[in-house]
Design a protein that fits this description.
The structure is a single chain. By secondary structure, the protein is α+β, with helices and mostly antiparallel strands. It has one domain: Alpha-Beta Plaits (2-Layer Sandwich). It has a 5-stranded antiparallel β-sheet with strand order 2-3-1-4-5. The protein is globular, with a radius of gyration of 13 Å.
Protein backbone atom coordinates (compact mmCIF):
# COMPACT_ATOMS: atom_id res chain seq x y z
CA UNK A 1 0.00 0.00 0.00
CA UNK A 2 1.17 3.52 -0.70
CA UNK A 3 0.58 6.47 1.55
CA UNK A 4 -2.37 5.78 3.85
CA UNK A 5 -5.40 8.02 3.33
CA UNK A 6 -5.56 11.13 5.51
CA UNK A 7 -8.73 12.61 6.95
CA UNK A 8 -8.44 16.10 5.44
CA UNK A 9 -11.52 16.43 3.19
CA UNK A 10 -15.19 16.89 4.11
CA UNK A 11 -16.33 13.92 2.00
CA UNK A 12 -14.88 10.78 0.41
CA UNK A 13 -15.53 7.96 -2.00
CA UNK A 14 -14.08 4.48 -1.71
CA UNK A 15 -14.36 2.36 -4.85
CA UNK A 16 -14.20 -1.38 -4.24
CA UNK A 17 -12.74 -3.00 -7.36
CA UNK A 18 -13.75 -6.48 -8.45
CA UNK A 19 -14.15 -8.80 -11.42
CA UNK A 20 -16.42 -11.74 -12.21
CA UNK A 21 -14.48 -14.02 -9.90
CA UNK A 22 -14.47 -11.64 -6.94
CA UNK A 23 -17.92 -10.04 -7.40
CA UNK A 24 -19.59 -12.01 -4.58
CA UNK A 25 -16.79 -11.09 -2.14
CA UNK A 26 -17.03 -7.43 -3.13
CA UNK A 27 -20.80 -7.43 -2.64
CA UNK A 28 -20.44 -9.04 0.81
CA UNK A 29 -17.79 -6.47 1.77
CA UNK A 30 -19.91 -3.51 0.68
CA UNK A 31 -23.07 -4.79 2.37
CA UNK A 32 -21.14 -5.51 5.57
CA UNK A 33 -19.55 -2.04 5.45
CA UNK A 34 -22.96 -0.39 5.11
CA UNK A 35 -24.27 -2.32 8.11
CA UNK A 36 -21.19 -1.93 10.31
CA UNK A 37 -20.36 1.67 9.46
CA UNK A 38 -23.71 3.19 8.42
CA UNK A 39 -22.33 4.41 5.09
CA UNK A 40 -23.98 4.70 1.69
CA UNK A 41 -23.37 2.01 -0.91
CA UNK A 42 -23.74 2.82 -4.60
CA UNK A 43 -24.52 0.48 -7.46
CA UNK A 44 -22.45 -2.56 -8.30
CA UNK A 45 -21.12 -1.74 -11.74
CA UNK A 46 -20.30 -4.88 -13.68
CA UNK A 47 -18.83 -2.72 -16.42
CA UNK A 48 -16.22 0.03 -16.54
CA UNK A 49 -17.49 3.38 -15.24
CA UNK A 50 -15.67 6.70 -15.23
CA UNK A 51 -11.91 6.47 -14.71
CA UNK A 52 -12.14 3.08 -13.01
CA UNK A 53 -10.25 0.28 -14.81
CA UNK A 54 -12.24 -2.47 -13.07
CA UNK A 55 -15.82 -3.19 -12.16
CA UNK A 56 -16.58 -1.28 -8.97
CA UNK A 57 -18.92 -0.32 -6.20
CA UNK A 58 -18.77 3.13 -4.64
CA UNK A 59 -18.99 3.74 -0.90
CA UNK A 60 -19.73 7.28 0.31
CA UNK A 61 -18.63 8.60 3.67
CA UNK A 62 -17.51 11.81 5.31
CA UNK A 63 -14.84 13.24 7.57
CA UNK A 64 -16.80 12.26 10.69
CA UNK A 65 -16.77 8.55 9.78
CA UNK A 66 -13.40 8.42 7.98
CA UNK A 67 -11.40 7.19 11.00
CA UNK A 68 -13.75 4.23 11.37
CA UNK A 69 -14.24 3.48 7.66
CA UNK A 70 -10.63 3.30 6.43
CA UNK A 71 -9.25 0.83 9.00
CA UNK A 72 -12.42 -1.28 8.78
CA UNK A 73 -12.18 -1.50 4.98
CA UNK A 74 -8.48 -2.25 5.10
CA UNK A 75 -8.89 -5.06 7.61
CA UNK A 76 -11.93 -6.60 5.86
CA UNK A 77 -11.04 -6.18 2.18
CA UNK A 78 -9.25 -9.55 1.85
CA UNK A 79 -7.35 -9.24 -1.43
CA UNK A 80 -9.73 -6.71 -3.00
CA UNK A 81 -8.27 -3.39 -4.10
CA UNK A 82 -10.02 -0.26 -2.87
CA UNK A 83 -9.42 3.19 -4.38
CA UNK A 84 -10.10 6.02 -1.89
CA UNK A 85 -10.27 9.71 -2.76
CA UNK A 86 -11.41 12.98 -1.28
CA UNK A 87 -14.16 15.06 -2.84
CA UNK A 88 -13.22 18.68 -3.48
CA UNK A 89 -15.12 19.43 -6.70
CA UNK A 90 -12.00 19.02 -8.85
CA UNK A 91 -12.39 15.51 -10.29
CA UNK A 92 -8.90 15.27 -11.78
CA UNK A 93 -7.20 16.36 -8.56
CA UNK A 94 -9.49 14.14 -6.48
CA UNK A 95 -8.50 11.11 -8.58
CA UNK A 96 -4.77 11.95 -8.54
CA UNK A 97 -3.48 14.19 -5.74
CA UNK A 98 -6.22 13.16 -3.29
CA UNK A 99 -6.09 9.46 -4.20
CA UNK A 100 -4.98 6.58 -1.99
CA UNK A 101 -5.09 2.81 -2.29
CA UNK A 102 -5.97 -0.02 0.02
CA UNK A 103 -4.29 -2.87 -1.83
CA UNK A 104 -2.42 -2.81 -5.09
CA UNK A 105 -2.74 0.41 -7.11
CA UNK A 106 -4.26 0.07 -10.57
CA UNK A 107 -3.78 2.83 -13.17
CA UNK A 108 -6.91 4.89 -13.74
CA UNK A 109 -8.18 6.13 -17.11
CA UNK A 110 -7.68 9.83 -16.45
CA UNK A 111 -8.44 10.77 -20.07
CA UNK A 112 -12.08 11.36 -19.13
CA UNK A 113 -10.97 14.42 -17.12
CA UNK A 114 -9.03 16.06 -19.95
CA UNK A 115 -10.70 18.99 -21.65
Amino acid sequence: MGTPPENIHPAYHAHVYFDAESAARARRLCVAAARALDIEVGRFHEKLVGPHPCWSCQLKFDMATFNDVIPWLDSHRDDLTIFVHGLTGDDLTDHTDHAHWLGDPIPLDLSIFKK
